Amino acid sequence: MSETQTVRDATFAVLREQGIDRIFGNPGSTEISFLTNLPDDVQFVLGLHEASVVGMATGYAIATDRPAFVSLHTTAGFGNAVAALATARVNRAPLVVVVGQQERAHLALEPFLTGHLAGLAGSYPVWTNEPVLATDVPGAIRRACHEAMQHRGPAVVVVPSDDWPTEYDPSRELVGPVRLVRAGTDPAPVVDDLVAAIEKAQRPAIVAGAGCANQAAWSGLVGLAERLGAPVWQEAFGASAGFPQHHPNFVGHLPGGRAALRRALGDNDLVLVVGTGALRQYVYEPGPLVPAGVAIVVVSDDSEDLHHSRADLAVLGSPAAVCAALAERLPQRGPALVQRVVRSVPPPETDDAFRAEHVFSALAQRLPADAVVVEETPSSRPELHELIPAKTPRGFISAAMGGLGFALPAAAGLRMGDPTRPVVALLGDGSSLYAIQGLWSAARYGCGVLFVVLANGRYAVMDQLAANAGGKGPWPAFDEISVAGLSRSLNCPAVEIRSYADLLSTLDDVIPGLADRNEPLLLEVSIATDSDSTLPASG
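^ that's the sequence the OP posted. Answer follows.
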């Protein structure tokens, strides 16, 4: 990939990587920039009608059990091919179908030969994509190869004609795995591939994701981490904990920015990502995800995790089963790591210095190991992760999508679904207002959740983003709102906490009986906000 200069060059590199050496097509004007002066190692196979083109490709794919590449003209060519594509789908033939489109530069003006292509082939394609950017095209075609094989049918990518000559940065990582294998119900056949990749590494690291948030996956990952002597990171912005965060091999939460991510993983030569994709980010930063020379292997039972990953090898299979099989196959490689020391948070010197970290530290000292912590505190999430480690599966739950309004009602549902475990929801006051009505339901249905609302009367994370952008947001504070008052109006008892001493006294009274509560309680905790704080970089 280092020699590629254009999107077209990068695409042909993907085709070589995937073992594709011929194009079945009937040429049209929207494909000229792709097809003119084909590389010498790519053969063009002409069909005189699109039915013949797709029919030949279908036979070729059946014979080779590999994806066959089809190039179709915009609406006319794609439309002519629909019946043959339907046959390919029913015959379970893997096809990568690239459909030409008019130039992006004037597509909004609907020029001659513009195609309304979405849905034209109905439900016969197994996957359809219209890349948002020209530089997304090579990755989309790589994914089409995998989708065609996994779902046994035509995978369609629509490419405007001016995408092909667009300059392509050769240092840009392609989204999607180079190689994808499927473990099925028995992981043994793919374990050889994973063992070979891991045995090449001298300094492997593990990244655990929300797809490992169950006891079987925790046990498998613990066994594998201890066998490798490898550090274990939690994915950034994960929905739940994928590894016991009080285990000696746990080293923290990955940052969500590329520069910090490269620093975190720079000492490793292989990163094994389990139960999530590689690697989740927040605010875009330039540069690669990991330093050059660091291999990435992904294991997940969710194919979307794999297709959204920058990975050398991806395995579609049960994280628990794959990790257990790996731990049995790999020799003991390193000593156990030394358990990290959780930072001690001294009491605030004054109530004016009473902050979120004091609330988290007080809770960490009192919560039982099986407590479920539901989080929606964007501006103080890093401190929460640092001070309240998840000790059991489902010990931490968050909204992986990032939108507000999840945690308050979800906490009530979690308590309703499993009344044997104590549930604490940690919310910002701004976050709580997105779903405050959920308190009525929690009270009405006897969901004994402790809702802890960190109140500073503003959207702290948005203020941070505005400051990082070099300015100030136009939104006002809302410190006149009483969350406790709203809670009482919805029939949910509430206590206003104005001091650190009040917090400790209330927690000492409530936490011992939290597992047996059948009535919710909201604590509105007035906290100070550090005006010099920065946007959290970890999930």
